[in-house]
Amino acid sequence: MDEQKHLMNDTLEQTIEYLPRLIEGVDELVDRLQAGSEKQAMALFDAVLDGLEWVNDAINLTMPFWSGSTSIDPHALGEPLEAMAEALKNRDYTLICDVLAYEIKPTLMQWLNNIKICLRG
User: Fold this and answer.
1) pTM of the model
2) Cα separation of 84 and 69, whole Å?
3) Pfam families per the record (predicted)?
């Protein structure tokens, strides 16, 4: 296996290990917001955003090396993140929860499955 392919596989394996923790963080953030614990939620919010950025970077950097067995839209989080930024500006925590639970989390779960398929292929 050439070095680039090995590096790509390592990055994707790290992403597979990290995504479940990020998904748990998304769930915890939603729970805190729904419970009205805004201060605790905002502390977790930055960590979730950092995690989303890391996963998105990992996917974008490895995309050129993916086999044709599966694909991921690296731009899938763009629109939900924009909606979440607008909701945050308006302190619309219900919308933030909806975006996290019904758009971002399913995308992360799909990415996790697709990365597993890619590594098998």
Assistant:
1) 0.90
2) 32
3) DUF8042
